[in-house]
């Protein structure tokens, strides 16, 4: 146990951990006793309701994710540029929540969203950056310059801004563990399971492969993976996990838009019948994966992307 680095952190878990290491130099029995006290102490501090923030929470995958977080017992901050739709999602939740209007392309707006979340709930345990737009379809030569800026603005810069302000908040938070007893016999895991926060962003299957007629969207979703993997390594040691999901065709307003505006030679690709599973995803199936990645079930998973594309 002495090989585990002594943390600088002053949270109750780390203070007890430091005591453990100090005492273990003299008496291994005492160290075991103190570690079990550390675990109980952490459990005692961790009975509060966790808090999840969801952008794009007014529709589709974001709405399904907010609903699933609430089913799992999280308080929810439902954020969307379309405030009425965010409020509609709020009415579906079983736990306390707030609806916040946000434009993820604007730093001041994203900062205000994070401030509102912290003012209401004290911290942000998990965030899903789901806000996104598809943009018009067309080959590169025919596509207007402002279409590129708009799609990149929401999907790539929007995720960067959300990461920036969410991580800044999480860095100020004490690490917590939701199920410390489960790891009681693994003190090293116990020590590093304490997380300040966990973030998942929406990339896409189009972030892993070419996406004909949607070059700005495709570029923006590859960018989300670059941001995810970079943020993950920058903040891994501070106990902040950052991951992404890459959904395939999903039954949401954006999924409908994609099918409607796709040129004939793309219709085969977007026809759910041609997918290995033979259907498109339900938004709830993506939401489940988001909540799992955010949860304590995968403490060693960071900088990853999870494809949810029915075998494609
Ligand atoms: N539906 C699919 O097939 C699919 C597949 C892969 C990835 N995705 C991604 O998943 C995410 C959610 O998609 P969806 O299908 O639920 O789409 P959706 O259109 O149903 O929902 C997107 C939400 O984002 C909000 N939004 C748009 N611009 C915003 C802005 N500037 N600030 C704040 N909110 C804004 C919209 O108001 C809307 O509520 C998106 O990032 C999308 O690119 C979707």
UniProtKB/TrEMBL annotation:
Keyword annotations: Oxidoreductase
InterPro entries xrefs: NAD(P)-bd_dom_sf (IPR036291), Sc_DH/Rdtase_CS (IPR020904), SDR_fam (IPR002347)
Gene3D superfamilies tied to this protein: NAD(P)-binding Rossmann-like Domain (3.40.50.720)
Keyword Oxidoreductase part of the UniProt annotation: yes
GO molecular function: oxidoreductase activity
Keyword Metal-binding: no
Family, per entry: Belongs to the short-chain dehydrogenases/reductases (SDR) family.
Protein name as annotated: HSD17B8 protein
Species of provenance: Branchiostoma lanceolatum
Gene: HSD17B8
């Amino acid at each position: 146990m002495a090989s585990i680095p002594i943390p600088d952190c002053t949270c109750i878990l780390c203070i007890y951990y430091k005591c453990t290491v100090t005492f273990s130099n003299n008496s291994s029995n005492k160290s075991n006793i103190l570690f079990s006290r550390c675990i109980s102490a952490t459990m005692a501090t961790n009975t509060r309701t966790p808090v999840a923030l969801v952008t794009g929470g007014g529709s589709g995958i974001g709405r399904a994710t907010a609903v699933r977080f609430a089913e799992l017992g999280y308080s929810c901050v439902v954020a969307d540029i379309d405030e009425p739709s965010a409020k509609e999602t709020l009415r579906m939740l079983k736990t306390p929540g707030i609806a916040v209007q946000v434009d993820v392309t604007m730093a001041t707006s994203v900062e205000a969203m994070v401030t509102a979340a912290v003012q209401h709930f004290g911290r942000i345990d998990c965030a899903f950056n789901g806000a996104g737009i598809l943009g018009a379809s067309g080959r590169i030569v025919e596509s207007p310059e402002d279409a590129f800026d708009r799609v990149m603005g929401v999907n790539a810069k929007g995720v960067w801004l959300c990461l920036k302000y969410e991580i800044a908040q999480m860095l100020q938070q004490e690490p917590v563990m939701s199920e410390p007893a489960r790891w009681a016999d693994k003190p090293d895991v116990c020590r590093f399971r304490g997380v300040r926060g966990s973030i998942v962003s929406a990339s896409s299957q189009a972030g892993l492969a070419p996406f004909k007629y949607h070059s700005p969207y495709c570029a923006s979703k590859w960018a989300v993976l670059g941001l995810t993997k970079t943020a993950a390594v920058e903040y891994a040691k501070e106990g902040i996990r950052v991951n992404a999901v890459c959904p395939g065709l999903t039954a949401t307003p954006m999924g409908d838009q994609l099918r409607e505006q796709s040129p004939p030679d793309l219709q085969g690709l977007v026809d759910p019948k041609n997918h290995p599973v033979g259907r498109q995803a339900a938004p709830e199936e993506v939401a489940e994966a988001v909540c799992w990645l955010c949860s304590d079930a995968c403490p060693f998973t960071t900088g990853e992307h999870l494809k949810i594309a029915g075998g494609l």
